[in-house]
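Standup notes
- DV: blocked on the single-chain target, sequence here:
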Amino acid sequence: MLVAVDFGERKRDLAEDHVRALLTLDPSNHEGNLMLGSFQYERGQYSLAAASYRTALEAKRTPTCLNDLAYILIGEGSYAEAGQLIDEACAMKPDDPLLLSTRGELYLRTGRLDEAETDIQQVLSVLPDNLQMQLLAAELYHARGQDPAARQILDTLRGRVHEFPADLQARLQDLLRDVP
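- DV (later): unblocked, structure below
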């Protein structure tokens, strides 16, 4: 598929043009809507991305699409629906670090700290340099009142703020401010 090649070669504009052409011919195409949702998410168009992911899920329920929609719903505070989606995705691919990271974030946001820690640690054991998971670990320690442990992680992230996506930069800055 041309879209996947363009996307893989980091030709975003061309890939997006191909996605739009594909969706003009087949508006319910799973891959097209999944990729469109990814482009929309990157631009901060979260409602549009969620709609694209929902359309993709009507065509085919894949772990990636379930995860991507769940992640947006977590950001919106729609935890019950996000939980159903991420549980479905994890049932399909139980050890997938991407899925576990989303589930870990859901658990953290809903106060299920022990379960959050399990998922976060499992992802970090496979992807120890993952900045988002390091941030989640710091947020987990802070939520547990373990600020020295959170501070230790934050000290390593402080100089890397620019490496985070905009939405995570704000969370990192907030945590840097909140952890003494």
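- Follow-up: The chain has a mean pLDDT of 92.
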